[in-house]
Specification:
heterodimer, A: 640 residues, FAD/NAD(P)-binding domain, Flavocytochrome C3, Chain A, domain 1, Methane Monooxygenase Hydroxylase, Chain G, domain 1, 3 domains, B: alpha+beta, Ubiquitin-like (UB roll), Fumarate Reductase Iron-sulfur Protein, Chain B, domain 2, 2 domains, five-stranded mixed sheet, two-stranded antiparallel ribbon, 34% helix, binds flavin-adenine dinucleotide, binds iron/sulfur cluster, binds FE2/S2 (inorganic) cluster
Chain lengths: 640, 261
């Protein structure tokens, strides 16, 4: 197992040549040998499905696990707005270099130059591949691909399939995976949840799983394990993530020696439908692409109760256009979210509870006509109407920020390998490319870059140095891990309280939103550190899983995930506390400029912070990976 | 709002199920149907009873997990809507609501409202894709695709694989689901080389998985939350016949599926 300081293993050479050189230098496994290696991929979202399919195409034996009933249900399916690529099909000055710069700047200079450059480089291949798969991207009348703009960019580089880009990309990857399942190259394990990682001789040797339909525990040995298990934003309970999204796989790997990087970097998305009900179970995102044509405003004066139609233009505050004239309604997410919170804190918010701002299409409908707007956003308008009962063709939408994406994740090196040799992390589950804030339409790009193009090369490099099928599932390490999983399930079943698991999840969510959400400060974070252990104790004496572990028990599944959130929350809070600066989505109120912008401290914090597990009784260790900017200058992020 | 729910409870695949009646009170009209069930489930847990198991995840109408027959309609009374997009304001105060799982030979019940839909995956595995390996693709603009074709392909590709079409069909047929994928790829130049293989393979897999035949009721299209049109079934039949005619070995398979647009 690696110990700090961690070397990202960034290849030598000029930035623009690193990936090509690395590809030329990595060790290869010969085609006839590949079938002797077995790889476990946990997750079937964009990252997992693309990786499993591409590895199988190369000839590796792949086992793919998902807790969903079908790979196609992974939460990637919900991505709406689009995927970035540096094609420059619009001739508007885009390039790999520009996409790279925008992404580094968008991430507030807290990501690795070499990784982000590679991502920008690969972006174009992703679009080529997805078109070849038959993904019905939007096209113009000449038959060419259409583009739209997203926050944090001044070019139109986002490819999209109406408001269902994630669904279409996922179905493409699911198709590729299905083809490999059909040919027998991938064994698919649906409704099967990974509950622990098995580490043997300091290397990843396999996983312990639970079949959700009957509770059967499985041991699976492999030559390498890939986690593509998505993000953990629904630690906040209310979020744009699916209800089953969780941190268990990553957190369990962390407890087995994989270090967790920047856990507190969580993105709050500015355009979600506000919560209206205390029993509400989720917040629905309204794609950022709406900000291409919608204008965001609140009344100029506080406590203005008039209906939006009665507020004349002169009494409206189009605050993003006013504060950030260069980017306006397309300012990056962290900035837009904080601005929305600020105007609501001034009692200028709209809708129930005053936690909302208007997103208004009247001007765009007037300018472009109903047909064009309907073509672009029809399904989003419909979705909004279904949920709120209000018609956005008649009255402006109401939006408010919500927890959305985790930039933090397992620490990985340039090869996407964690600090446990043989354990890889891809997609939202790793921390790699988005720094302290992710730009819109770049998660789909990253998940697919990792899965289709990067991992298939770098995994081979690892395997080539190893004898095939070195791991067997009958060893002491597997025994120990299985026993630990079973003991924990037994403990959950034995609690025998009367409080629903969701009650604890809601309380944890409220606590995290309050103290470790859109803005943070020392006192609040310390308060959270004091409260989380109490909540955890109440959980472990109060819950009811209402059944046993050897049956299809949906409450037990949820209980295990919430139990992990209750531990992981502490790591998040510690990370937010230790980072005494504001950067991107991490906004510490103590560190801001005179006009309320995030104030970075590059001298002390231009680094990745990674956390290592010690034992249940002790606080985790913190280690840093310094970030060096050779190509770009560390600059203040200015969108004004 | 108050409701009386009659919900199908079944402990496991091998056990018999039955309806159990649950009153729910004081429900806000702004709660979704699934959130209303969450409230009921929390009450059940408070009494130490096992909550009602149901599939759900995204809760925004896109993942295809949620699946309930509500008062006899898959996904409930509203057209073009998944179960998770139903709100209690869509029901009358005091209403009696019956909730059952998908019922079809190919979808065995696993627990309460949860069924096994792996059969749909098997249909896709049999050919619902373009067989392009990663790395093989030409530039995305190497081929143009007319906007009409791209839009039509999109319309078909919107299927979320929920299985409501199967649940609605008196024969438990998966023709609409299969048609959606076949039509999507038939519309696009990238899908054409494998056209014949694809449709034959998928139709065969559909039969093997235990889905019934289509006898033109079109209850499927009415139940479909993504409003996949019934005309795609005719298109599927045409694709199938063409494929069967061009490859003699498949002629035998063609017979049970003959009808015209
Ligand atoms: C509403 C919404 C809209 C978005 N819109 C955009 C957009 O327009 N553009 C953009 O670029 N990004 C967007 N994003 C972000 C992007 O969709 C995600 O970051 C990305 O799809 C994550 O993909 P993934 O493959 O890493 O994870 P996921 O798709 O979440 O997949 C995780 C997989 O892991 C499995 N899994 C997890 N844990 C376990 C376990 N313990 N055992 C077994 N299986 C497990 C799950 O079953 C699932 O298959 C959006 C996100 C949301 C929530
Ligand atoms: S065709 Fe419609 S009803 Fe059938 S699986 Fe697809 S979305 Fe569901
Ligand atoms: S829960 Fe995802 S479609 Fe209903």
């Amino acid at each position: 197992m690696r110990t700090p300081p961690f070397d990202p293993h960034t290849p030598e050479g000029p930035l623009a040549e690193k990936w090509q050189r690395h590809r030329a230098e990595v060790r290869l496994v010969s085609p006839t040998n590949r079938r002797r290696y077995r790889v476990i991929v946990v997750g079937s979202g964009l990252a997992g499905a693309s990786a499993a399919a591409s590895l199988a195409e190369l000839g590796y034996q792949v086992d793919c696990f998902t807790f969903h009933d079908s790979p196609r249900r992974a939460h990637s399916v919900a991505a709406q707005g689009g995927i970035n690529a540096a094609k420059n099909y619009r001739n508007d000055g885009d390039s790999v270099e520009r996409l790279f710069r925008d992404t580094i700047k968008g991430g507030d200079y807290r990501s690795r130059e070499a990784n982000v450059y590679r991502l920008a480089e690969i972006s174009n291949q992703i679009i080529d591949h997805c078109v070849a798969q038959g993904i019905p991207f939007a096209r113009d009348y000449a038959g060419y691909l259409d583009n739209r703009s997203f926050g944090g960019a001044q070019v139109a580089r986002t490819f999209y399939a109406r408001g269902q880009t994630g669904q279409q990309l996922l179905l493409g990857a699911y198709g590729a995976l299905s083809r490999q399942v059909h040919s027998g190259q991938v064994r698919l394990h649906t409704r099967t949840e990974m509950l622990d990682l098995v580490v043997e001789d300091g290397r990843a040797a396999g996983i312990i799983s639970r079949r959700l339909t009957d509770g059967r525990i499985g041991r699976h040995a492999a030559d390498a394990v890939v986690l593509a298990t998505g993000g953990y934003s629904n630690i906040y309970y209310l979020s744009t993530n699916a209800l089953a999204s969780n941190v268990t796989a990553g957190y369990r790997a962390y407890r087995r020696g994989a270090w967790f990087a920047n856990p507190s970097f969580t993105q709050i998305h500015p355009t979600c439908i506000p919560a209206v009900e205390d029993r509400q179970s989720k917040l629905t995102l309204m794609s950022e692409s709406l900000r291409n044509d919608g204008r965001i405003w609140v009344p100029q004066s506080a406590h203005d109760e008039r209906s939006p139609a009665d507020i004349p233009d002169t009494e409206r505050d189009y605050y993003l256009e006013r504060m950030y004239p260069a980017y306006g309604n397309l300012s990056p997410r962290d900035i837009s979210s904080r601005a929305a919170k600020a105007v609501c804190d001034e009692a200028r918010g709209v809708g129930p509870g005053g936690r909302g701002v208007y997103l208004d299409f009247a001007e765009a409908i007037g300018r472009l006509g109903r047909r064009v707007i309907s073509d672009r956003y029809g399904n989003l308008f419909q979705m909004y109407q279904r949920i709120t009962g209000e018609d956005p063709w008649q009255t402006p939408m109401r939006i408010y920020p919500a927890a959305h994406y985790s930039m933090g994740g397992l620490w990985v090196d340039y090869d996407l390998m964690t600090t446990v040799p043989g354990l890889f992390a891809i997609g939202e589950a790793n921390f790699s490319d988005h720094g302290a804030n992710r730009l819109g339409a770049s998660a789909l790009m990253q998940g697919l870059a990792d899965g289709y193009f990067i991992l298939p090369q770098t995994l081979g490099h690892y395997l080539a140095g190893r004898p095939p099928l070195a791991a067997q599932n009958g060893t002491a390490a597997f025994e120990e891990a299985q026993a630990a999983v079973e003991a924990r399930l037994k403990r959950l079943v034995a609690v025998g309280g009367r409080t629903p698991v969701d009650v604890f999840h809601r309380r944890l969510g409220e606590l995290m939103w309050e103290y470790c959400g859109m803005s943070r400060d020392r006192a609040g974070l310390e308060q959270a550190l004091a409260e989380i252990p109490t909540l955890r104790e109440e959980f472990w004496s109060g819950i009811c899983v209402c059944g046993g572990s050897e049956e299809f028990n949906v409450v037990l599944e949820k209980a295990g995930r919430v139990a992990d959130y209750l531990e992981f929350a502490e790591v998040m809070v510690r990370d937010a506390l230790a980072r005494e600066e504001s950067c991107g989505a991490h906004f510490r109120t103590e560190y801001q400029t005179a006009d309320g912008e995030a104030q970075r401290n590059d001298a002390a914090f231009a680094h990745v912070a990674a956390w290592g597990f010690r034992d249940d009784g002790s606080a985790p260790q913190r280690a840093i990976e310094p970030l060096s900017f050779e190509h770009l200058h560390l600059a203040e992020r200015n969108y004004r | 709002m108050d409701f009386t729910l009659h919900i199908w409870r079944q402990h496991g695949a091998a056990e018999a199920g039955r309806f159990v009646t649950y009153p729910v009170r004081g429900i806000s009209p702004d709660l979704s149907f699934l959130e209303m069930l969450d409230v009921l489930n929390e009450e059940l847990v408070g009494r130490g009873e096992a909550p009602i198991a149901f599939d759900h995840d995204c809760r925004e109408g896109i993942c295809g997990s949620c699946a309930m027959v509500i008062n006899g309609d898959p996904h409930g009374p509203l057209p073009g809507t998944t179960t998770c997009q139903l709100y209690m304001r869509h029901f009358a105060n005091g209403a009696e609501i019956t909730v059952e799982p998908w019922r079809a030979r190919a979808f065995p019940v696993l627990r309460d409202l949860i069924v096994d839909r792996a059969a749909l995956d098997r249909v896709i595995q049999a050919g619902g894709y373009v067989s392009v390996n990663t790395g093989a693709a030409p530039d995305a603009h190497a081929l143009t695709v007319s906007k009409q074709a791209a839009d039509a392909a999109f319309e078909a590709a919107a299927c979320i694989g929920c299985g409501a079409c199967v649940a609605a069909c008196p024969n438990g047929s998966a023709m609409l689901f299969t048609a959606a994928k076949v039509v999507q790829l038939a519309m696009l130049p990238q899908g054409r080389p494998e056209r014949a293989r694809r449709v034959i393979g998928m139709v065969e897999a559909m039969d093997d998985a235990g889905f019934g035949n289509c006898t033109n009721h079109y209850a499927c299209a009415e139940a479909c939350p993504k409003q996949i049109p019934a005309r795609f079934i005719a298109r599927l039949n045409r694709e199938f016949l063409n494929a069967a005619l061009t490859s003699r070995e498949f002629v035998e398979l063609a017979r049970p599926h003959e009808h015209e647009e």
